[in-house]
Amino acid sequence: MNQLPRIVVLATGGTIAGASGNPASSAHYQAATVPVSSLLAAVPALKSVARIEAEQVAQVDSKDMTFALWAALAARVEHWSAQADVAGIVITHGTDTLEETAMALHLTQACPVPVVMTAAMRPSTSLSADGPLNLLDAVRVAAHPDACGKGVLVVLNQQIHAARDVAKAHTSAVDAFVSQCGPLGMVQDDYVRFARTPRQAWAIGPMPRAWPVVEIVASYAQPGRIAVDALVQAGVAGLVVAAAGNGSIHEVLAEALVDAAIAGVAVVRSSRTGAGHVAIPAHPSPSDGVFVSAADLNPYKARVLLALALAADPALARDPLRLQAAFAQA
Fold first, then answer.
1. Residues with active-site annotation
2. Domain covering 6-194: architecture
3. Does the annotation list 96 as a binding residue?
């Protein structure tokens, strides 16, 4: 009889580990209160899928995610993936910043085994909790041989997403997560199917010891330049603009950002729309010429990539052509 694969579950908290005194409520609860041992005990079907080993890396509401926790999580991924008998790793996480953690791990972890993130939109005590099935499906995907070599994956609501593409697009629905190009595949019961293979990301390197300060500003009707000027004065290394439409920036904000770029701050144009590619102008204006396109990355994923790129090579801040190439490769 073949032995079941060994899967390691790394828990970080979030709604999947949330609890409420009212099972009929899925909106009012305390996140990150249920230990990973209880999450696993609530899904007895896991025993028929894999040999599970669990570790409580953290117990936080993901709105409070930090770079230090990313580094700790990356270290545990590296530790467990180096063990020859570990077939895959599952990470439980809160939904609020899952897409950012997924992007950071995807860009820094050259992992030899599948790394699958999962979460829940409803707490574990809810009458309609989605966490147990999401956890079971994530373990099924992590144990599947076709999951290898696809970078970090995200499994929610019976769908398999690429870490680079997935984003939270609804405040409360169980199908809150979407990908611009659609999911990579699906999982239903013990059936796992990949319809396509994601493009492999540019390998920036390990998690940095020190993170450059990169912030997000937005363009909207009649913005001021106070925020940009203050951030430049504070020593920010990079700015991502959540711009309108196809990366359009109000002229007042654009002037402030040009000054920021001249001062050595990397400026990246993303879109606040939630979907689509920010084009690089064929005939750039003076402001366009010093700004980098985030391609189809939303502002939050673009911030992760920009911070990692500047940590690896601070000179990119004054070289928009090379920085643009980095975004093209991601």
1. 15, 95
2. 3-Layer(aba) Sandwich (3.40)
3. yes
